[in-house]
Automatic annotation (TrEMBL):
Belongs to the FAD-binding oxidoreductase/transferase type 4 family. InterPro entries: FAD-bd_oxidored_4_C, FAD-bd_PCMH, FAD-bd_PCMH-like_sf, FAD-bd_PCMH_sub2, FAD-linked_Oxase-like_C, Oxid_FAD_bind_N, Vanillyl_alc_oxidase_C-sub2. One of its GO terms (biological process) is lactate catabolic process. Its main location: mitochondrion. GO terms for molecular function: D-lactate dehydrogenase (cytochrome) activity; D-lactate dehydrogenase (NAD+) activity; FAD binding. The keyword Transcription does not apply. PROSITE patterns: FAD_PCMH. It catalyses: (R)-lactate + 2 Fe(III)-[cytochrome c] = 2 Fe(II)-[cytochrome c] + pyruvate + 2 H(+). Its cofactor is FAD. Pfam families: FAD-oxidase_C, FAD_binding_4. Gene3D superfamilies: 3.30.465.10, 3.30.70.2740, Vanillyl-alcohol Oxidase, Chain A, domain 4. This is Probable D-lactate dehydrogenase, mitochondrial.
Length: 491
């Protein structure tokens, strides 16, 4: 329990910062970016690293989400952590918003500059800093993408398996706590980051596990690394990450199977997971998703609810696991079970799966997809996916369902034409129902997209008033001027 003296001290702080006991976010007012601001930034970075042209600002005003674009006032391209530090410190002193920008592949408006300010694009910092092959870890700068990292490390026998689909920047993946198709075996970013270099809002540079540290585990103090993993750029800018690598599997086999009922497909997933079969990928695509998949990527699969699966490991064990999965699929009325071992066949299948966003958009020419995700305990998957399918069918709209169902996470893609407010309101209602049901089933409002702009109102319901207040206290302590990616996570 707080002492009365401490409570009085906190109340005094709340009054002077504009906070209430239950809302630790102060009422922030920002300064405008002026010609003088731009000149100061050019003095810091040089003429060729600071842009105010509308085309560049528009590019940095949005990600892949449905959220309304919001342009920054200026975009900068630093090439070292020292320059990032100088820009952030300058913005903090002058109360100018800062928005970190990776590759712009997010799905919750995380890079939208809703308060204007300075967008910091990290693409010029794209080096692999250190490779430790025998320890299976690497240290990278923020601009390198996961595909570039895997290409760089291919000859070492290591790979970075976290695969959200898009060619995201590794540090952007840290900021959003990304995961993707391989999470069922390899975990999410939270389990695969050993250390982070972070520029704090006042310009200080810290290393969350200590400079140069890369031990596989530690119990030394607070877990600062995972404080920043998933912070969505609201606490600081990640300028370097040390991540775990994994051995490239000796053998990889892909299989897909079709089902007449959603229940049979999802029950198969539950049985695979509960049987302890170490499947690396376990993806669900409903019949609507398969229709889009076939049309966009020139496949000719039966239009039916389907599972795509992948198994990694030594050759003998992989074939044994493949046979076990076959038996489970057939016992749950699966049909058309097909395997693929050739690298080009596997790559084509997963490329088509990762292009699902564009495949869905192609179903309704001129549309842009509203994409939402939730995650529940695996045993609750059948209930929520069946219910979601019913809501979509009842509304008579297009909404393919795709999911990393091996870990309870699934997405719905709703193609909406610009200006169609009726369709958008319908989709928002279905998304809300999905979230509320997910929370009722002890799940989460977002498995991997992040809170961003779209899920802010659900955070309170998920973690509770005191939980949000604690988060806001951390935000207030690290970023008292509120300059870091304002408007995200919290209202």
């Amino acid at each position: 329990m707080f002492s009365r003296v401490l409570l009085r001290s906190l109340e005094k702080i709340f009054k002077t910062t504009g906070c209430t006991k239950r809302n630790y976010s102060p009422k922030i007012s920002f300064n405008k970016v002026t010609d003088s601001t731009v000149k100061s930034l050019r003095d810091l970075l040089g003429e060729k690293k600071v842009f105010t042209e509308e085309a560049v600002r528009e590019q940095h005003s949005h990600d892949e989400s449905y959220h309304t674009s919001a342009m920054p006032d200026v975009v900068v391209f630093p090439d070292s952590v020292e320059y990032v530090s100088k820009v952030v410190a300058f913005c903090n002193t002058n109360r100018i918003p800062v928005v970190p920008y990776g590759t712009g592949t997010g799905l919750e408006g995380g890079v939208n500059a809703v308060q204007g300010g300075v967008s910091i694009n990290m693409k010029n910092m794209d080096k692999v800093v250190e490779v430790n092959g025998l320890d299976f870890d690497v240290t990278v700068q923020p601009g390198i993408t996961r595909e570039a990292l895997n290409s760089y490390c291919r000859d070492t026998g290591m790979w970075f398996p976290i695969d959200p689909g898009a060619d995201c920047s590794v540090c952007g993946m840290c900021a959003t706590s990304a995961s993707g198709t391989n999470a069922v075996k390899y975990g999410t970013m939270r389990e695969n980051v050993l250390n982070l270099e972070v520029v704090l809002p006042d310009g200080r540079i810290i290393h969350t596990s200590g400079k140069g540290r890369r031990a596989k585990k530690t119990s030394a103090g607070f877990n600062m690394t995972n404080l920043f993993v998933g912070s969505e750029g609201t606490l600081g800018i990640i300028t370097q990450a040390t991540v775990k690598m994994h051995g490239i599997p000796e053998k990889t086999v892909v299989a897909y199977c079709h089902f007449k009922k959603i229940e049979d497909a999802v029950d198969t997933v539950i049985q695979i997971v509960s049987s302890g079969i170490p499947v690396a990928k376990c993806e669900f695509l409903d019949d609507s998703a398969i229709k889009a998949f076939n049309a966009y990527s020139d496949y000719h699969m039966p239009v039916a609810h389907s599972l795509f699966m992948e198994v990694h490991g030594p050759e003998a064990s992989v074939h044994h696991l493949f046979n076990e999965i076959t038996t489970l699929c057939i016992s749950n009325n699966g049909y058309g079970f097909t395997g693929a071992e050739q690298a080009e066949d596997r790559a084509r299948l997963w490329k088509a799966r990762h292009e699902m966003l564009y495949a869905v958009n192609a179903l309704v020419p001129g549309s842009k997809s509203f994409v939402t995700d939730v995650c529940v305990p695996v045993t609750k998957l059948t209930e929520i996916i069946v219910k979601t399918k019913q809501w979509i069918d009842k509304a008579n709209i297009i909404g393919p369902i795709v999911g990393h169902v091996g870990d309870g996470n699934f997405h719905v893609f709703f193609p909406i034409k610009p200006g169609d407010t009726t369709a958008l309101n319908t989709v928002l209602d279905i998304s809300k129902q999905m979230v509320l049901l997910s929370l009722a089933l002890n799940g989460t409002c977002t498995g991997e997209h992040g809170i961003g702009l779209g899920k802010r109102k659900y955070l309170l319901q998920e973690v509770g008033e005191d939980g949000v207040s604690a988060m806001q206290q951390v935000k207030q302590a690290l970023d008292p001027n509120g300059i870091m990616n304002p408007g995200k996570i919290f209202y």
